[in-house]
Amino acid sequence: MEKVIIVGSGCAGLTAAIYAARANLSPLVLEGRQPGGQLSTTTLVENFPGFPDGIDGPQLIMNMHAQAEKFGSRFSYSEATGFEPMNSHVRLQIDGEQWLETQSLIIASGASAKWLGLQNEEKMIGHGLTSCATCDGAFYRNVPVAVVGGGDSAAEEALFLTRFASKVYLIHRRDKLRASKIMAERVQRCDKIEPIWNSVIARYVPDQKGEMAAVDLRDVSTQEERRLPVACVFVAIGHEPNAKPYAGKLEMDGEGYLVTKKLVESKYPGVFIAGDVADRVYKQAITAAGAGCAAAMEAEKYLSGLE
Ligand SMILES: Cc1cc2nc3c(=O)[nH]c(=O)nc-3n(C[C@H](O)[C@H](O)[C@H](O)COP(=O)(O)OP(=O)(O)OC[C@H]3O[C@@H](n4cnc5c(N)ncnc54)[C@H](O)[C@@H]3O)c2cc1C
User: Fold this and answer.
1) Measuring from atom 20 of ligand 1, which residue has the nearest CA?
2) pLDDT at position 278 over 90
3) What are the residue numbers of the active site?
């Protein structure tokens, strides 16, 4: 029987691992399909405290990993595929086969940004293609940028980006926003935002260094294409929480995010939830790390109570 299993090795999972390992619990961390989580897909991170010159996302993750390992965390590339809460422990299925038993579980499986599914998309992420204006907006001062989407988050990202960019194109495949009335009105009133209706991005156009230089837009009614120079594209079409194994067993909101009580608690004693898998609002490395810390401290308290 394990004492603590942590599902996920992003900022939340690794911070939980550091705290649980330092509490002598020797946690087992399941890394899943994206070891290191979302930060492993980005370049410079400028808003994680403690790094005044910024730090490369993958480097930050490698540091957290080394710190967790140093105190005795164990790692496995397995994926959690099934979840069964029992009276005094939890059964967790890995890779669709084996079942592990654990006294406590920390679910830190994050969320995946939805992308457009274009050909060179994976290569462009972190090179002028991102899903987070709060994270990357400040890198694009006095240059034109584009936001893709038509909901509240697209409207919010576009408005936020007007603080930095010379122009914000809001690309939407329909002829009006699906955002709330108040957000749509704010967008309309803002001179710096230019909506481009009935249009989709057909392809990203990188420069010679592989950084975003332009996008090719396709009008969905006429199929005509035109090139739009932009330094960055912010895709704001939503996130998908990685919470499938818990469907029907843990509480979820309408978008599939896990619901917590008191920051990290689930409805089962001993099962804690941390980071983007339960966060539809902040979605930041530091908030995920903070929740990971809280989850590990709660798990430690829960295990002490069992003794
Ligand atoms: C391009 C980009 C740039 C960003 N830039 C910044 C930035 O500059 N500053 C900032 O603060 N934030 C930034 N963010 C947001 C930040 O990365 C996230 O808020 C943070 O990574 C969330 O951490 P997490 O641990 O909750 O989840 P994630 O990082 O999503 O990690 C989830 C982990 O869970 C694992 N997993 C998922 N399902 C399973 C399963 N079934 N079994 C086992 N493991 C599983 C995955 O493999 C992964 O290891 C950025 C995000 C992106 C996409």
Assistant:
1) 285
2) yes
3) 132, 135-136
